[in-house]
Amino acid sequence: MSAQPILEVNGASLSFKGVRALEGVSFSVAPGEMFSVIGPNGAGKTSLLNCISGRYALSSGSLRFEGQDITRRRPAARAELGIARTFQNLALFAHLSVTDNIKVGRHHLLKNNFLSGGLYWLTGARAEELAHHEAVEEIIDFLEIQHIRHAAAGTLPYGLRKRVELARAVACKPKLVLLDEPMAGMNVEEKEDMARYIYDLNREWGVTVIMIEHDMGVVMDMSDRVLVLNFGEKIVEGLPGEVTHNPLVREAYLGGAA
User: Fold this and answer.
1) Residues 228, 230, 236: CA angle, nearest 5 degrees
2) pTM for this one?
3) Is a pLDDT exceeding 50 seen at residue 120?
4) Interval 185-201 mean pLDDT
């Protein structure tokens, strides 16, 4: 791993009409790391991902991605730098096919516009379209969704829709992907499949992962490091084994001293 973090979060605070969702949260993530964020409901986990992706603006604090200050950059600008995400509540285009939903994730990578695309053979638009198609097909193969590529996303079972949303995030060609409860609502077999895809995305594709997940077995098996939030504050950060034995973590989850 590189000495320079891919992401640095410094003193991140977020308020909604006086309610503190995050309070002075600081941590860093190394390139290629599998980093998990855990905590009880209402701990501020999704708010943290929303701040990193640009959906929310920090009330105070700063964010740096590959050494660049992105604190005030818009979500689209962060996507162009290489930050992608999935959502706790599915955000697919239900009427579009699986393939078209995945293509949406690559929109910001296309260089030809309406005017230059009109000169299809002269401007490289055809070559770009072929490369675009090949990239989408590689993702479809990787996530084993060949059999549903033409199906409307809204007609699919929940577990497959979660896989399609991951595919769309991968299509953004991210350096860092933010996964908000990617296995929520899945049965055991679906969880095992999703865990394998995320592991391969991280280890074989080299994508840094920040994941929110409530299944502690998954978190402890997959994570390089774990950050624990409670009431918007960081209470501990460390290796999975260290975190599980920390009395502050047990108190946060169980409501009393272990």
Assistant:
1) 35
2) 0.88
3) no
4) 95
Q: What does 32-97 look like in DSSP terms, one character per residue?
A: T-EEEEE-STTSSHHHHHHHHHTSS--SEEEEEETTEE-TT--HHHHHHHTEEE--SS----TTSB
Query: For residue range 153-187, what is the model confidence (pLDDT) as tens digits?
Result: 999 999 999 999 999 999 999 999 999 999 998 99
Sheet of 68-69, strands arranged across: 19-29, 7-16, 60-65, 68-69
Distance of CA 47 to the CA centre of its chain: 13
Mention every residue, 6+ apart, whose C-beta is less than 8 A from residue 45.
Answer: 37, 38, 39, 180, 212, 229
Record: fold of 1-82+175-258 = Rossmann fold (3.40.50)
Give the Cα separation of 11 and 122 in Å (integer): 50
**What are the structure tokens assigned to 246, written together?**
């920390």
The answer to whether the Cα torsion of 183, 48, 177, 167 is positive or negative is positive
Contact call for residues 223 and 35 (beta carbons, < 8 A):
yes
Closest CA to 139 of 197, 182, 79, 190: 197
Bridge partners (DSSP) listed for residue 14: 22
Backbone CA torsion sign across 123, 129, 130, 131? positive
Residue with the two structure tokens 């999703």: 194
The residues spanned by each domain of the chain are 1-82+175-258, 93-173
Reported as type and span, the H/E element at residue 217 is helix 216-222
